[in-house]
Every structure is written in structure tokens, then in C-alpha cells.
Amino acid sequence: MPFQIIRNDITKVQADIIVNTANPKPQIGSGTDSAVYAAAGAELLLAERRKIGEIAPGQAAVTPAFNLSAKYIIHTVGPAWLDGLHGEKEILHDCYANTLALAAAQKAESIAFPLIATGVYGFPKDEALNIALSEIGKFLLTHEMLVILVVLGNEAFRLSEQLVGPVNAYLDEHQVKALEDAEYAGGRTLEHYRRRRAAQQSPSSGSPFHSAANTAAKPLDQILQDTGDTFQQRLFKLIDASALDDVTVYKKANIDRKVFSRIRCKQDYKPTKKTAVAFAIALRLNMQEMLDLLACAGITFSPSDKFDLIIAYCVQNGIYDIFEINALLFQYGQPLLGA
Fold first, then answer.
1. Cβ contact 128:166 at 8 Å
2. How many CA atoms lie within 13 A of 122 on its CB side?
3. Residues 274-284, buried b or exposed e (16+ Cβ, 10 A)?
4. Which residue, 324, 317, 339, is CA-closest to 136?
């Protein structure tokens, strides 16, 4: 998938470019900066860094990666947090935008970021994460590159309490009872929806799932023809009915271009749940539409599954930004959407 969030030491991540949160002066700082110098070879990297000179906050510069597995290191200087009223947010936006532009100029296929400025510079982690997701999302709409956000531990990754609080309450409320959704007429449960869908595939609708007496009256080839859309067929009908083109859909779904090409060429393609849901999010389907698409791939939702509940919460609350949803899923230890 084009965007990933992982827990790791950034110096050990396999990527064309490693991003370093640099000291503005050509000297070794602390935190990520110190770790990158140590892993790359401090003397070699410092000599290259001195050739660049001072880097202004928000700007970025590139050096070889030396002993790292990467090809390059991009050094960017984050803002020191004062109160948010001294241009700190604008500078952090610039850090990501300028670094990504420089990576594209280097023709990189992959880049790994730390959460810039959240260490000794004290930038609030939830706001820093929102800025990172915003800039990475904008970049990936127009570029093909694997972007990896690397965090070390739970404290390094923090979502806004305005989002986490309601999600926690929602999970607590629904963990022990059937998932209700206002999209269903009369507040019906997912199980009701599945029963209704099965009822719609009655003998009169040509479903193969009815009595042997009825199926015996039909040739096998006709029965097989009446099974309904495959996932691939339903997906492309939905895309055709939307105002989006293929590229926009697979980028909004965090789907790799090659994976999307395979889906288009393979009528019997069987997606994983995270891939199928990613397309539903990209197309902004409501819960009923999403479950209908998933059913074409034989995928169902469970009212006791945390992944399913988080997705349901997002859809019910109009959250369709896949980067924001993936941050939520990562927070709760769930698979990320995409492929």
C-alpha cells in the first residue's frame, strides 16, 4: 500500500530515503538526529552536512546515506513549539511538503518519516500527526511513492482526544451487542441486513440458494449465471456511477497501482477485508452499500470485531479520509486499509 504506519527504529527501516529531524546547524543533535548519525557513520555524514551549512526551519536538504540501507538521507528542520501562534504549524507543513518534493526529485520509490518535531522540540503529537497525514495525503494524490510513517512506541503516536474519546465510547457500547446503524431502516442490525439480503435472493429472484426442487428445474449453467455480481463487477459499477476516475479511487483507497490493475483484469478477484473496505471508503459508501459490496466477495462484518466497529464508527460519523482512518486503526492495533 502507498502509505503505511509502523513501529520501528527508523534507522532500520528499508526505504530509498530516510528522513532526519536535523539540527539547523551542521552539528549532531539529540533524538532522531543522533541516531541517524550513529547508524550512517557520524564522521562521514557530518562532513557532508557541513557542505550544506545551516538549514532554515521548514527547509530540507539531501545527503548520501552512507552506512544506512537507504540511498539518501533528507535532513529537515522542524519548528520548536512555543504556543502554536508563532508559525509552528506552517513550518511543520513545510517540512513535509519540502521533503516529499525533494524525494520526488531524487526519483525515490520509498521514504520513511519520523513524526517530525515531536521530540525535544515539543510539538504536540496529535497536531503533528494531523499535519503529517494531511501533507502525505496531498502528495500521494499526485505521486506514486511508498510513504512510511515510523513511530517508536505508544507515546510517540497520539491521536486527538476529540477523536479517541468518542471511539472508545463507541467500542465499549457495541462490543457486547449487535451493531446498530442508522443507515438501516428502523435501526436494524447487521444480522437483519444479512437476513434481508438472503431473502432478496429468493426463488423468485433467481437465487441458486433455495430448495432442491427449484434448483432441479434449472440447468447448472443458468444457476451459476444467476449468482450475482462478483466483487470486481460490483466495484467497477460503483466507480462508473461515481464522479471519480480510476486513479483517484485507488489513491483514495490507499491501493497500489499494480494491485488495482490486477483487480481490473481479474473478474474473480478475491480481496482481503481491508482492501474491500478501503474501496468502500474511497467511494464514500454508506453502511448498507459497503456491506453489499463486501458481500459480493463473501465478506461480512461482526458486531464483536474491533476492526469492523471502528470502520462502522467512521462511516456513521462521515469520516472518509483513509489516512485518518488508518491512524485510528493503528492506534487500536488493527490492520490498515489498502493493498
1. no
2. 5
3. bbbbbbbbbbe
4. 324
Q: Please, are residues 285 and 293 in contact by the beta-carbon 8 Å criterion?
A: yes
Catalytic residue among 33, 94, 181, 308: 33
The pair phi, psi for residue 328, each rounded to 5°, is -65, -45
**In the structure, what pLDDT confidence band is assigned to residue 304 with cuts at 50, 70 and 90?**
confident
* Helix H or strand E segment including 150: strand 146-151
Average pLDDT over residues 40-56: 97
Q: Is there a contact between 2 and 144 (Cβ–Cβ < 8 Å)?
A: yes
Q: What is the mean pLDDT of residues 196-220?
A: 43
| Grid cell for residue 179 | 451493531
* CA neighbours closer than 13 Å in the CB half-sphere of residue 38: 11
Burial class (CB in 10 A: 0-12, 13-18, 19+), 111: buried
CA 231 vs CA 205, 268, 307: distances in Å: 19, 7, 21
What pTM does this model have? 0.83
Dihedral (Cα; 229, 232, 237, 239), 10-degree rounding: 160
Domains of the chain by start residue, with CATH: 3-158 (3.40.220.10), 163-188+229-331 (no CATH)
Give yes or no for a contact between 196 and 292, defined as CB atoms under 8 angstroms apart.
no
Q: H-helix or E-strand containing 43? A: helix 42-52
Model confidence at 239, in pLDDT bands (50, 70, 90)?
A: very high
Q: Catalytic site residue 226?
A: no
